[in-house]
Amino acid sequence: MNKYNSFLNLLRFLLVILTTLVRLGSGGPEENEGVKYANKCEVCKIVSHELQARLEETGKVQEVLEIGYSLDDVKPKKKTQYKKSELRLVESLENICDKILEYNIHKEREDSTRFARGMSQTFKTLHGLVDKGVKVDLGIPLELWDKPSVEITKMKTQFQ
């Protein structure tokens, strides 16, 4: 009887492991429908690209900031170049989340370039067909075609 119980315990253990592996191996309902979310590296790459672009825009300003305060203005205020200021970094980070929503998913690509600005080749073709009068039914209304996809909105929440 003791061997039988240990055999049953072994079977239960194997069943638990197999069930766990099956759950891990199969994607969630989104992955089964073709949705592939951005991983941390892809989010970081896009955010760093946007931050770099924003810092290049604000780096052209030659202002000098006077930092500090005093009641009698006897002490001179500390002067800092805007290029090297914390204010520049804060202003650059301010609207990056909204910039992420300008990206589109390019399902025809497999690597991190699948997140890029501009319309994907697939949607360019579909818009061209609609412009020619062809009825295209994707299961979503035409006015939602140009809205950010679930992958893009999820990427924005990953950054926040």
Automatic annotation (TrEMBL):
Keywords from the UniProt entry: Signal
Q: Where is the signal peptide?
A: 1-27
Q: Where is the DUF3456 domain?
A: 40-158
Concerning its family, UniProt says: Belongs to the canopy family.
Output this protein's name.
Answer: DUF3456 domain-containing protein
Tell me what organism the protein belongs to: Homalodisca liturata
Q: What is the lineage of its organism?
A: Eukaryota, Metazoa, Ecdysozoa, Arthropoda, Hexapoda
